[in-house]
Amino acid sequence: MTSENPTNLGATQRTLAERARDHIRERITSGEYPPGSRIKERELSEELGISRIPIREALTGLSTEGFITLQPRRGAIVTELVPEDLHEIFEIREVLEVHEVVLALRHGTEEEKRRLVEIVEAERAAVRAGDTAAVAEGNAAFHMQLVAMSHNALLTSLLDPLRSRLSWLFKQNDDATTICAQHYEIAAAIADGDEARAKSLADHHVATSRRLAMTLLFGQQH
Q1: What pLDDT sits at residue 167?
Q2: Do residues 176 and 140 touch, judged by C-beta distance below 8 A?
Q3: What is the rounded CA–CA span in Å between residue 197 and residue 68?
Q4: pLDDT of residue 106
Q5: Spans in the chain with pLDDT lower than 50
Q6: HSE on the CB side for 216, CA within 13 Å?
Q7: Which residue from 101, 182, 188, 191 is spatially nearest to 147, judged by alpha carbons?
Q8: CB atoms within 10 A of CB 86
Q9: Using CA atoms, how far apart are residues 105 and 195, in angstroms rounded to an integer?
């Protein structure tokens, strides 16, 4: 068994399994572990300097999130996303994220609303500069800020299992200008206190994200 190496993943207050889960998830979302590829516990254990027990726990957690499929005799396989999976994800987004915008408008503080506008301004600058990494970060930051502004612990807990998969989907959008413009409009409506407009814009935003993801990933229009 590999000993826990404090210079690697062990040097943290978070559990080894949590760190390993984040590490593996990042490799999946970055494309380093493509769909259908096998994740080998022994190789990860040696690379990260931890035992296979937290690796196995991390893979179990990732299977719950939908990133990993655990198969008898084959072990952990990176899940291949199919159109039906995407439809299910966006059905949830339609319900949770539209309501999230409404709650952000109702419960967000003035400082939080200013921060939301700052995030979309930075995202717009990244789009103009052609900085795709910064655009992806801004995209994720925008949605995370909305969750925080809702001040609803139950909504946060419902969105947590989806957040990583949604972040991966955000990276797939090939029309950053449109997505960013919609973020700006939503942030402006929230700052203005226009609930009806914010809700309508959020609904349209989810529909646009669905269309872009379906076209990019599967060549399908929805």
Answers
A1: 65
A2: no
A3: 38
A4: 98
A5: 1-7, 9-13
A6: 16
A7: 101
A8: 20
A9: 7
Q: Do you know the residue count of the chain?
A: 222
pLDDT digits (tens, 9 = 90+) for 142-166: 989 999 999 999 988 888 767 667 6
Q: What is the amino acid identity at position 195? A: E
Q: Which of 150, 142, 131 is nearest to 170 (CA)?
A: 142
CA dist list (Å): 152 to 8, 58, 92, 97, 102 = 35, 27, 17, 13, 12
- Using left for φ > 0, alpha for ψ between -120 and 50, and beta otherwise, residue 221 falls in beta
* pLDDT recorded at residue 222: 52
Measured over the CA atoms of residue 68, residue 74, residue 80 and residue 82, the dihedral's sign is negative
Closest by alpha carbon to 79, among 63, 90, 91, 59? 63
pLDDT at 172: 55
The model's pTM is: 0.75
Looking from the CA of 123 toward its CB, the CA atoms found within 13 Å total 27
How many angstroms separate the CA atoms of 210 and 220, rounded?
10
**What contacts 24+ positions apart, CB below 8 Å, involve 137-142?**
138/180, 139/170, 139/171, 139/173, 139/176, 139/179, 139/180, 139/183, 140/167, 140/170, 142/116, 142/183, 142/187
Q: What is the pLDDT of residue 12?
A: 45
pLDDT in tens, 24-64: 988 888 778 888 899 999 999 999 999 999 999 999 999 98
Which neighbouring-strand residues pair with 69? Answer: 77
Judge whether 189 and 196 are in contact, CB under 8 Å: no
